[in-house]
Amino acid sequence: MRAELEILFRNGYLSRKSYRDFLADPPPNIDELQKRLFEKQLIDPPDWSEALPLLAEPEGLESGGEPPESQNATMHAIQDRARKIAANDTTVLLLGESGVGKSRLARYMHHHSHRRQGPMVTVACGSIPDTLLESELFGVEKGAYTGANASREGRFRRAHRGTIFLDEIGELTASLQVKLLRVLQERRVEPLGSAAEVEVDVRLIAATNRDLEADVRSGRFREDLFYRLNVVPLELPPLRDRREDILPLTKFFVERFSRQRGLAYDASDARLQALLVEYDWPGNIRELENCLERLAVLSRDGRLNADDLPPRILRDIRPTSTGSKPDPRSEAFPSLRELERDHIVRALTSSKGNVQKAARMLEIHRNTLSRKLDEFGIDSGAFKKSRRPGRRSATAGAVPETG
């Protein structure tokens, strides 16, 4: 165990000799806990430099070998365009659902640019508490606030003469949107607690899974910042729209698992491959990778078995009697917004209304989930009852299902 590791206990009865300090009124969430601990000078501001790459690279394609070239014509066109754009410093906005490979495309553009010898710095905007994101982006001077015991240069300055990749940029607060716009216009950052500005030479690539144009119309995202970011947008298609990539990606991941674990995994089973291609993969490449890892762990002789697929996948694949998928034009499909809302409702139901636990299940930050609850008009408190809430309007309270 690290000697400098701080241990936190939640307990009603502790001997005074057994602890350094205490909080009489427990904070409601982890963000408030960090803030209170900073104020009491019990911990230093966290250094996100080690955590950020893990938080911001969920696609799983940045390490462990070169992934296969896409077989999809749309992806070929996007990659060709990205290669052309990489040659200059134009700001690029990457669009697409979570897990489609936005961070990999950003890294591809950096490595094909004249900045490739410089750093590529990644920031997962939605994974860092709002109270810490400003200092993480722009830096902080020692003593700028209680608990700031050392100066830090910030991610923009670390990316000097390189590329900064702002993932989940749609999650920025209004005040941070203003400050980011100023940095993009003036190419200077002002560290928190400092009156001096520092010049930065960076190329910005941003990514989001949100509909920023809709957010501009609703007033949630600044119009001027949107136009500054939307110089060259690239929208990556979801995996369900490029099914020809599913089996090559399966082969890539299975071979990588084999190298990592010193085993010979085999995913050649015809039934398994048919089901993998049939499934819609709402979580895209990330979900495919996680599913294959599950199959590898559960395999008995190294052969990945279709019977070990997660129940939700087997449940969601509903082939017709001929073994083919129904014609999408003959069915009424729910919108992506409906699917997102239903997914949140399922997580809140499973967590019995615990927002922090639901956010972990959904693999998003608690603040992001809180904003989603406001957006959909969902009351998390209604899920703490024993019965499952049903659908509700944007203004009405959650209504239990009846009948």
Question: Which helices and strands appear, and what pairs or packs with what?
Answer:
Layout: H1 30-39, H2 51-56, H3 73-86, E1 92-95, H4 102-111, E2 120-124, H5 130-138, H6 155-158, E3 162-167, H7 174-186, E4 188-189, E5 198-199, E6 202-208, H8 212-218, H9 223-229, E7 232-235, H10 246-261, H11 270-278, H12 284-298, H13 311-316, H14 336-351, H15 355-362, H16 366-376
Parallel strand pairs: 1-6, 1-7, 2-3, 3-6
Antiparallel strand pairs: 4-5
Helix pairs in contact: 3-4, 10-12, 14-15, 15-16
Structure in words:
Helix 3 (73-86) packs across helix 4. This protein has helices at residues 30-39, 51-56, 73-86, 102-111, 130-138, 155-158, 174-186, 212-218, 223-229, 246-261, 270-278, 284-298, 311-316, 336-351, 355-362, 366-376, and strands at 92-95, 120-124, 162-167, 188-189, 198-199, 202-208, 232-235. Residues 1-5, 41-64, 319-332 and 386-403 have low confidence and may be disordered. The chain contains 16 helices and 7 strands. A hairpin with an 8-residue loop joins strand 4 (188-189) and strand 5. It starts with 29 loop residues before the first helix and ends in a 27-residue tail after the last helix. The chain has 4 domains: 1-43, no CATH class; 51-237, 3-Layer(aba) Sandwich (Rossmann fold), CATH 3.40.50; 242-319, Helicase, Ruva Protein, domain 3 (Orthogonal Bundle), CATH 1.10.8.60; 336-384. It is an alpha/beta fold and 403 residues long. It is 40% helix and 7% strand.
